[in-house]
Metal ABC transporter permease
Amino acid sequence: MLQLDFMQNAFMAGFIISILCPFIGLFLVLRRYSMIGDTLSHSSFAGVAIGLVIGINPLITAFLFTTLCAIIIELLRDYYKKYAELVMSLVLTFSLGIAIILISSGKASAKVNSFLFGSILTVSREDIILILIVGIICLLALLFLYNKLVYITFDEEGAKTSGIKVKLINYIFTILVGATISMSIRVMGILVISSIMIVPVATAMQLKKGFKTTLLAAICFGIFDIMVGLVLSYYINSAPGGTIALTSVFTLILTIVFERFISK
C-alpha cells in the first residue's frame, strides 16, 4: 500500500489536513461557529464547479471562492448580529445555486464525484504542493494569532476593550477557515469536510482537560481518524471522506464509553 504513489500523496495531504482542521475546529466549536464550517464547505462546491468549467485547478478556484464567501459572511454578520444562522443560509443558498447551475450544464459533471466524496486516487503532486503551501501559511497565521484568538474566544468584549482588533482578526480567522476547507476537499470530499474539523474536537473535549491539552488531543484524534480512514478506504474500496467521517464518529463513541467507564 505505502509503495503506491497515490497512497503516499493521500497520506501526506491527510497528515497536513489532520493537524490544521482540528486546530481551526476547536476555535469554531468554542465560539459557536460550527455552522461556518458546513457553510463554507458547501461554498467550496461552487468554487470547484467554476474550476472544472473554466479549466483551472479546482483547488485554486475553491480557495478563492470560499475566501470570498468567508468575507461575505463576516460582512453580513454586522447587519444580522442576532441572526447569525440567517447569514449562513444566505451564503449557502448563493453558493449551491451557482454550483447546481454549473454542474447541470454538463461541463463539469464527469469529475464532480471525486470532490463531493473525496478520492485517494486523484490527489496529485501538484495538489500536495498547494496543500502544503496553504497549510503552512494557515498554521503560521494561527500560531501568530493564537493568544489573541484565545482571548477573543473566551471574552470578545474584553478583547475589544484591551485594544485587540477583534473585527480584523475575525476576518482573518474566517478566511483561514475557508482556506483550510478548500484544501481539504481532495481527501475528505465537500460533503463531510466539517466532520474532521468538529468531531475530533468533540472527542477531545470528552477528556475534560485544559485548552492546550484539548487542542493537542484534538489534533491527535484528527491524525488517527484520517490515517485509519485512509487505510480502511483503500482496503474496502470506499470513498475516503465517508470512511474518515465514520471513523471519527466511532472514535468519539468509544471515547465517551471509555470516559464513563473510567469515571465510575
Remarks:
- The two ends are 42 Å apart (CA to CA).
